[in-house]
Write a structure and sequence with these properties.
Shape of chain A: globular
Number of strands of chain A: 11
Strand content of chain B: over 45%
Number of strands of chain B: 11
Strand content of chain A: over 45%
Order of helices and strands of chain B: EEEEEEEEEEE
Distance between the termini of chain B: 34 Å
Structural class of chain B: mainly beta
Shape of chain B: globular
Largest sheet of chain A: 7 strands, mixed
Number of helices of chain A: 0
Oligomer: heterodimer
Largest sheet of chain B: 7 strands, mixed
Helix content of chain B: under 10%
Order of helices and strands of chain A: EEEEEEEEEEE
Radius of gyration of chain A: 13 Å
Distance between the termini of chain A: 39 Å
Largest interface: A-B, 23 and 23 residues
Chain lengths: 117, 106
């Protein structure tokens, strides 16, 4: 059973960079796409983008200018960097596996990141 | 972007009830629709893919239907462990988008 676990700071200051890591266990990080999704308090889910195990990325145009994703196959981890954050970036951030059709088939349980001075 | 409109946003139900949740896409997504169950503090769980296919290990009391723009998730004989939030996801095109969620409450 594939399992994903998000980790990173729960508090980030405005204008700084939000950095999160997702650790994958129970399966190889190779041959799959890996995604980040977020959900602000009281709002719906927003897909942030994906990274393929080869390093190819695709970002949601709504966040593209501020997002970078990376991947470390040796550690079975992939990461999210979101630059120049504001209070609007406060959300629960989820990582997930994305199959080749676009289905998000395995998710982490999410981590709350608050943007505040 | 494809907008996904899910209804209702919440519903009250009792053990043994049948509940129906709908998801409408702003344009044709063929059958590229998935349904998820999300319980507080847990990872969202994939229930149904390609609109009507049950994920392995998911009980047959969950049923999905629809194609094009209109989709339905039906839960038969609701049990205590089924009280959760359910949401849909379209994967016909990027960016991936989600319905707003339906909270099934006792």
């Amino acid at each position: 059973q594939v399992q994903l676990q998000e980790s990173g700071p729960g508090l980030v200051k405005p204008s700084e960079t939000l950095s999160l890591t997702c650790t994958v266990s129970g399966g190889s990080i190779s041959s799959y796409y890996w995604s980040w999704i977020r959900q602000p308090p009281g709002k719906g889910l927003e897909w942030i983008g994906y990274i393929y195990y080869s390093g190819i990325t695709y970002y949601n145009p709504s966040l593209k200018s501020r997002v970078t994703m990376s991947l470390d196959t040796s550690k079975q981890q992939f990461s999210l960097n979101l630059r120049s954050v504001t209070a609007a970036d406060t959300a629960v951030y989820y990582c997930a596996r994305l199959d080749s059709s676009g289905l998000l088939d395995y998710w982490g349980q999410g981590t709350l990141v608050t943007v505040s001075p | 972007d494809i907008q996904m409109t899910q209804s209702p946003s919440s519903l009250s139900a009792s053990v043994g009830d049948r509940v129906t949740i709908t998801c409408r896409a702003s344009q044709d997504i063929k059958n590229y629709l998935a349904w998820f169950q999300h319980q507080p503090g847990k990872a969202p769980k994939s229930l149904i893919y390609l609109a009507s296919n049950l994920q392995s290990g998911v009980p047959s009391k969950f049923s999905g239907s629809g194609s094009g723009t209109d989709f339905t998730l039906t839960i038969y004989s609701l049990q205590p462990e089924d009280f959760a939030t359910y949401f849909c996801q379209q994967y016909n095109s990027y960016p991936l988008t989600f319905g707003g969620g339906t909270k099934v409450e006792f």
